């Protein structure tokens, strides 16, 4: 089963590492705690969704264990994997989305964190395979343009990871809506990827609501560029 989707996968279930060695405990505690933000922001149902983060200086990342429930999640619900997606520490089999996360870490060295959810409005745009047009200044700030659609891909091999990398490489958006599936986000940290997932759902909802009463007005490309530049380089505490 896919812990992201709870749908059957083509390949066999991933194996846990054979024992818990307690490595990278601090980072696993941090990533376990970030999963609570998926719940408080209403991005996930049951055990669907996952957060991962690259281990600094090592060819490893930490990711939610398959089927681990959010309520009471501890560091032991987070598994350490190598960049091929093989569990190296932890008693939980890693998320079935591990192949996708691993592919992105291998191919996008600037990415240190990833999130995947089936949040409602993002998945609704994904179901129509329609990019969210950039019609809000908050979208220009965060995404620098539309939120793109990635290809339809089955879980169980590199297909989803390839679709994410192909869609987001050279794109300003840290979020992609994979067709018929849901949102995948990338960031300089797991927390940044969580923020992108929260913001993607927020703007997907607002643009959807706007559509109900008419056609949203586009923002001129020069204004999108100016907003993005200011927000990414000037706004906030650096
Ligand atoms: Zn999924």
UniProtKB/TrEMBL annotation:
GO terms for molecular function: aldehyde-lyase activity; L-ribulose-phosphate 4-epimerase activity; metal ion binding. One of its GO terms (cellular component) is cytosol. The keyword tRNA-binding does not apply. It is an enzyme of class 5 (isomerase). Residues 29-208 form the Class II aldolase/adducin N-terminal domain. One of its GO terms (biological process) is pentose catabolic process. Transmembrane segments: none annotated. Keywords: Metal-binding, Zinc. It catalyses: L-ribulose 5-phosphate = D-xylulose 5-phosphate. InterPro entries: Aldolase_class_II_sugar_metab (IPR050197), Aldolase_II/adducin_N (IPR001303), Aldolase_II/adducin_N_sf (IPR036409). Its EC number is 5.1.3.4. SUPFAM superfamilies: AraD/HMP-PK domain-like. Its cofactor is Zn(2+). Belongs to the aldolase class II family. AraD/FucA subfamily. This is L-ribulose-5-phosphate 4-epimerase. It comes from Klenkia marina.
